[in-house]
Amino acid sequence: MNRRVGLYPGSFDPIHNGHLELIDRCAPLFDVLYVAVLRNESKQALFSVEERIEMIGPLVARYANCRVESFSGLLVDFARKIGAGTIVRGLRAVADFDYELKMVSMNRRLESGVETVFLMPTDDTIHLSSSLIKEVCVLGGDISGLVPEPVRELLEAKLASRPQAGPRPAEDPL
Ligand code: PNS
Fold it and tell me: How does pLDDT run across 114-148, given as a tens digit for each residue?
């Protein structure tokens, strides 16, 4: 029997309620859903890949079919490796569309056997992005309700532990 394997890739730096809402909606659509954290040495992140995987694990533990992994290299190569036929992405706004369209057409060119599907977030999470949440948090704004409580605690601790001085360097992960 063919298993339906879904792949939800992203940076998840950190995971927020929009990501979790999407997982909640797409986990029932697949026999196995991989939440895959991109390992990208050239893009500086606030949390290490291991920290992100550790953070996500307990949040998706309620879905028996959900696995959390990291990947590097091409997404379609990882999809092939795990036998995923479907990539899932969230589509929040017009601003996402251009980027996602380019990714879809490149991925299709690289691997025509993998389909990408998009889920529109609900009104409650449509405005969320990891970078915006980090920015609000670093400026002392309240991010409760935007990320799960353990993520809020980890994010605040991580930001508090960073050196304070000077303007933000260009490669700052915020
Ligand atoms: O959460 P993000 O940062 O929007 O996720 C982007 C991600 C991880 C889906 C994308 O950067 C990706 O697939 N990277 C892997 C490299 C790759 O396959 N590139 C070619 C396809 S455009």
Answer: 999 999 999 999 999 999 999 999 999 999 999 99
> Which amino acid, residue 118?
F
pLDDT digits (tens, 9 = 90+) for 66-85: 999 999 999 999 999 999 99
- The model carries a pTM of 0.94
Q: Which of 74, 92, 76 is nearest to 132 (CA)?
A: 92
Active-site residue numbers? Answer: 19, 43, 92, 130
Kindly state if the Cβ of 9 falls inside 6 Å of ligand 1.
yes
Q: Is 53 exposed, middle or buried (0-12, 13-18, 19+ CB in 10 A)?
A: middle
Q: Which atom of ligand 1 is nearest to the CA of 13?
A: 1
Residue 87 region, left (φ>0) first, then alpha (ψ -120 to 50), else beta? beta
Tokens of 129: 């992005």
- How far, in Å, CA of 18 to CA of 24, rounded? 10
Residue nearest to atom 5 of ligand 1 (CA): 10
Sign for the pseudo-dihedral over CA of 172, 154, 92, 67: positive
Closest CA to 6 of 38, 33, 24: 33
